[in-house]
Design brief:
homodimer; alpha/beta; FAD/NAD(P)-binding domain; 4 domains; 5-stranded parallel beta sheet; globular
C-alpha cells in the first residue's frame, strides 16, 4: 500500500465529516486530520430546534457520531476544540490553536479541505449582545437555550428572523409553552417562497397564537421600562413596537465563514462565499472547499448563490474526496430544495422562485393549483397549495413551491427530481407515479401541475395572476365567478358577476363579447372549464391562476 | 363553430371519463356519447376495498361524479346500464343494448374509443360460482360484499389471490373483524415485488393473524362437511388444506376486456390486450383504445405488457382526446409504478423487477439497503427495505422496490421520476431532495441507493446477493460478520467468523489471504466499510447486498 496524501479538514460537521469518511474509504493510507472548533463533530445541526422543543428528548441523540466512534471506524485524527488561526498556502501549513490549552502549532498538509460552514449574522443592532440572546448553531447553543428557557416557563420568547431556523425555533419554543413572537424585516417569512405561498404560513403562525411582525426590522434591544417584564431584553422594532422578551433567538440568516480563506488570499465570490470551480477546488490548487462556506452556482438560474443546506454539504464532501483520491467528479450546482414543518403545515420549494428568476432576467410563467393530497373520496385528504414555474418557450420546469398539511414533501421531491433531470411540464404531466387512495390520486398533484402548465403552452387556456385581478380595467374586462351559489354567498371578489359553471352554456347571452372575461372558481379547475366553453363560443376568456384560494392568499400577502 | 366529430366512448370509468371530459374541453361542437354497462360512471374503483372495510364511510363517496353532474359540466350524452354488443367497423356503428329495457339499437360514430377495462379472472375451478363468492370490480360488487359480510360478523373470509386487490381486501375484511385467510398460487404475494422484498409483507400479514397460504392454488370450492361451518364454501387448496369460508373474494387477477375488439377484427396483442400504436389507435383508424383493455409497451423493458393501473388509464384518456381533436401526442409506455398499504406496511415499486428484466434478457445489477425513513435522531424513524435495479454498463436505473412503515411512497415516486427521465445511479446519488429532520436525511434513502449502486459501478465494492451466500463454497470463501458483539449473539449466519468493524484493522492477521471474504453487517453499510479496508489491504472482499436484514428476508422467501 503506497503512502497516501496528508489531508487536513477544517470543520467536522456535515461536509467535513462526509469528506473525511469518504476519503478513508477511498484510501486506507491517507493521513486524515479533521479539526473542529467546537466540542463535537458530526452533530445533528438540523435537529437543534427539535431538541430545544423537547421532540428530541436526549442530547445524546444530537451527536450523530463521536470522535471516538469516527476514529475507530475511519481511523481519523480528530481534534475538537481546535481553531484554525490561519492558512499559510505557500508553506502548505495551517496554524491551529488548541482552545483548551491555548497552544498554537503549525500543521502541514498535502491537501486542505475547508468546511468552515456559515455563522449566524449578528448585525450591529444596539444591545444585541446580552444574556438571554442566542444564536442556534451548535449543541452548546441548544443546551444554553434549553437551560435558559427552563428558567422562564410560560415566558415570552422573541425570534428575530422568519427563515428556516427562525420558524423552526418559533414552533419549538411554542411547543415548550412559551409565548412566542416573530419579527421579520421582510414582508414575508420563508423567503424561498413567493409571497402568495408564504401567506399561508402567516395564517398558520397566527392561528397558533404566535405574534408575527412583518416588514418590521429590529432597531434595538433595550432594557425593560417600568411595567415591562423582560428577562432578556425588550425587542424594539422599527414600527415602534416593543416586545418584552425573556428569551431572544437571533435567526437573521447566516454568512459564509470565509475569513480564513480570504486572509489566505483565496478568491472569494460575489456573494461572499469561498469561490470554487466545478470540482470544488478553490483558487489554490491544494485547497478545496465545501458546504455552507462556499458560493455555488444555482442549478436553474446559473447565478452565483449561497444555499446553505445540509444535503448539498454532505454530497460535496463525497465529491471533494473523490476528486482528491478517486474518480474526478463535478458538482452540478445547487437547486435550493428545502422542506420545513411550521406547526401543522409543511412548506417546501425547489428550483428558482419568482424573485430568483426575475433577478436572473429569465422569462417564466407560473401556474397555481390546489389539488388534494390524496384521493378526495378517501378520508383525510387536504388541499396542497402548489405553484409551478416554467419556461414558456421550452416548457422546462424552473421551480416549484407547495404548502399543505400532508404530501408536500413528496411532491416537492418529485418536482426537484424533474427539475434536476431537465424535464418539461409535458413530461411532468405524463409522470407515472404511485397511486392508491391513501397516497395520491390517479392524476397526482405533480401531474396536474404539469397538465395545467402544458395547457398554457399549447394555448388551450391563458391565465393571469391573482395580483393582476385587482389591477384589471373594468372598462375592458369583466370578472366572472363560476362557483356554486353557496360558495358565492360565502364570499367573492368585488365586482364579479356570477354564473355557475353548469349554467354557462345556457347563459352565454349574459356575457359581453367586447370585453375580456376573467373567470375564477375556487381552485381554478372549473374556471378553466368555463374558459374553454367561452373561448370556443367566440369570447375572449382568461383564467385566474389558482383562482379564489390563491387570490385570497395574495390579498393577505398584500401583493 | 364548425361541427365536431361524433365520438362514441365504450366504458365510463377512469380512461373513458377522462377522454370524454378532455374531448369536450377541446371541442364544444363534438357530439360525445359515453356508454357504460354498469349503473355508475366515473366511480372510485380503487376505493372499493376501503368502502367494504368501512374506511370510506359512505357509498356516495365512491361516486366521484354522476351522469347528471358530468352532463351539466361537459355536455355529454351518458348512457348507463348500456352494453356494447358488437362493433361494425365497416359501417362505423356499434350495436348497443339497453340493459333495463333489453332494447338493441345501432349507434353510428365518427370516432370510437374503447375503454372497456379488464374483468376479474374466474378460472374454471369447480364450484367457483356460488352465493357468497364475489369479485371486486364495481360499486354493486362492493355493496353486495358489504351486505353479505354484515350477515357474518366475525366470520371467516378467504381471499383468493395476493395481488393489489386481494391484499387490500384482506386488510379491509380483517378491519371489519373477520378472520381472514389468503390463498395464493405463487410462492409470494405482490408479484410486482421480488421475492426477498415481498417476504416482508408475508411477515406483516401473518403478524396480523391473517392466514397466508403460498404456492397453494385453489383446486375446488366445496360444500361444508359435517363439523365445518361455511356460509359460502369450503375453499380446498392443492395442498389439501380446507378453508371454511363465510365469504370468498376472487382476486386472481384481471384480463383485458378485448372481446368486442376481437370480434370486430381489431388486432389483439400477444398478451391478450387490444393492440394499439404509439398514439393509442387500434388497427382500425377510426377506433382508439385506452386503459386496462390495452396492451402497453413496458417503459423499461419494451416488452408488450398488461399494466392495469388507474394513473395510466387517466392519462391515456387525455392523450387519445388530444390525438382525436387537438395536438397529436404519443404514449410513452407504462412503468408499472404502484403503491399499496398492507396493514402498517407500505409496499411500492416502479420500473422493472428481476423477473421482468430476466424475461426481457436485459443485464442488470441490484443493490439492497435499509435506510431510515427520516433522520435517525428525530423520533419515529423506521427502516425502509429498498432494492434498486440498474444497468451496470450505462448506470441507468431500471427498477426500484421499497417496503416500510413510512416514506415509501415518496421514494418510489422520486425513483419513478428518475427512471422515466432516464437518470443514472450517479444522477440519483446527486439528487438534491428536501431535507428536514421530520422528512428525510441529508443523504436521502434515494441518494443512498444511487450512491451504493455507483460504488459498484466504479468498482469500489462488489457484492453478492443474500441468496448466493447460502451457495458459497467454504473452501474458497470465508463469511465475516462485522457487527457488534451484542448483534452477533442475537443471531448470525451459520459458519461466519466475527470481527467487529472497529477491530478489523488490528485483526487483519486473523483473516485468510487465499480466500474471498464475504462480509456482512446488519444493513450492508458497515460491511461496505469493512470491504474497503480489506480490499486496500490486499484481501479479496465482497459485501452481502442488504446484509443480514435482506439475508433474513431471502431465507423467509425461500430464495
Amino acid at each position: 500500500m503506497s503512502r497516501g496524501p496528508k489531508i487536513l479538514i477544517i470543520g467536522g460537521v456535515a461536509g467535513g465529516a462526509s469528506a473525511a469518511a469518504r476519503a478513508r474509504r477511498l484510501s486506507e493510507s491517507a493521513e486524515i486530520i479533521m479539526v473542529e472548533r467546537g466540542p463535537h463533530v458530526s452533530f445533528a445541526n438540523c435537529g437543534l430546534p427539535y431538541y430545544v422543543g423537547g421532540e428530541i428528548a436526549s442530547r445524546d441523540d444530537l451527536l450523530v457520531s463521536t470522535p471516538a466512534a469516527l476514529t475507530a471506524r475511519f481511523n481519523l485524527d480528530i481534534r475538537v476544540n481546535t481553531e484554525a488561526v490561519r492558512i499559510e498556502p505557500a508553506a502548505k501549513t495551517v496554524v491551529l490553536r488548541d482552545l483548551v490549552t491555548d497552544r498554537e502549532y503549525s500543521e502541514p498538509y498535502d491537501v486542505l479541505i475547508l468546511a468552515t460552514g456559515a455563522a449566524p449574522v449578528r448585525p450591529p443592532v444596539p444591545g444585541i449582545e446580552r444574556p438571554g440572546h442566542f444564536v442556534v448553531r451548535n449543541v452548546p447553543d441548544a443546551l444554553a437555550i434549553e437551560e435558559w428557557a427552563n428558567r422562564y416557563p410560560g415566558g415570552q420568547a422573541v425570534v428575530i428572523g422568519g427563515g428556516y431556523i427562525g420558524l423552526e425555533m418559533a414552533e419549538q419554543l411554542h411547543r415548550r409553552g412559551m409565548q412566542v413572537s416573530i419579527a421579520e424585516a421582510l414582508p414575508q417569512v420563508a423567503a424561498f417562497l413567493d409571497p402568495e405561498t408564504a401567506a399561508l404560513l402567516h395564517e398558520e403562525i397566527r392561528a397558533h397564537g404566535v405574534g408575527l411582525y412583518l416588514s418590521d426590522a429590529v432597531s434595538a434591544f433595550e432594557n425593560a421600562r417600568s411595567g415591562e417584564r423582560a428577562a432578556a431584553s425588550v425587542v424594539v422594532l422599527r414600527s415602534g413596537a416593543r416586545l418584552p422578551a425573556d428569551l431572544v433567538i437571533l435567526a437573521m440568516g447566516v454568512r459564509p465563514e470565509a475569513s480564513l480563506a480570504r486572509d489566505a488570499g483565496l478568491a472569494i465570490g460575489v456573494t461572499g462565499g469561498i469561490k470554487v470551480d466545478d470540482h470544488l477546488r478553490t483558487s489554490d490548487p491544494a485547497i478545496w472547499a465545501i458546504g455552507d462556506a462556499i458560493e455555488v452556482r444555482h442549478g436553474v438560474t446559473g447565478a452565483p448563490s449561497l444555499l446553505p443546506l445540509a444535503g448539498p454539504a454532505n454530497r460535496q464532501g463525497r465529491i471533494v474526496a473523490d476528486n482528491i483520491l478517486g474518480t474526478p467528479r463535478t458538482y452540478k450546482g445547487s437547486f435550493g430544495t428545502g422542506i420545513m414543518r411550521v406547526f401543522d403545515l409543511v412548506a417546501g420549494s425547489t428550483g428558482a422562485n419568482s424573485r430568483a428568476l426575475d433577478s436572473a432576467g429569465m422569462q417564466y410563467r407560473a401556474v397555481h393549483l390546489h389539488p388534494s393530497s390524496h384521493a378526495g373520496y378517501y378520508p383525510g385528504a387536504c388541499l396542497i397549495a402548489m405553484k409551478l414555474l416554467f419556461d414558456p418557450d421550452t416548457g422546462r420546469v424552473l421551480g416549484a413551491q407547495a404548502v399543505g398539511r400532508d404530501g408536500v414533501d413528496k411532491r416537492i421531491d418529485v418536482l426537484a427530481t424533474a427539475i434536476q433531470a431537465g424535464l418539461t411540464v409535458e413530461d411532468v404531466a405524463e409522470l407515472e407515479l404511485g397511486y392508491a387512495p391513501p397516497f395520491g390520486s390517479a392524476k397526482d398533484p405533480a401531474n396536474l401541475a404539469g397538465m395545467i402548465a402544458s395547457n398554457h403552452r399549447t394555448g388551450l387556456v391563458s391565465s393571469i395572476s391573482p395580483t393582476e385581478v385587482s389591477r384589471r380595467d373594468p372598462n375592458t374586462t369583466v370578472l366572472l365567478d363560476v362557483r356554486e351559489p353557496s360558495e358565492w354567498s360565502e364570499g367573492h371578489i368585488a365586482g364579479a358577476i356570477h354564473i355557475p359553471l353548469g349554467e354557462i352554456r345556457a347563459r352565454l347571452n349574459e356575457l359581453p363579447r367586447d370585453k375580456e372575461i376573467i373567470a375564477y372558481c375556487r381552485s381554478g379547475l372549473r374556471s378553466y372549464y368555463a374558459c374553454r366553453i367561452l373561448t370556443q363560443n367566440g369570447f375572449r376568456a382568461t383564467n385566474v391562476s389558482g383562482a379564489y384560494l390563491t387570490w385570497q392568499a395574495a390579498q393577505q400577502a398584500g401583493c
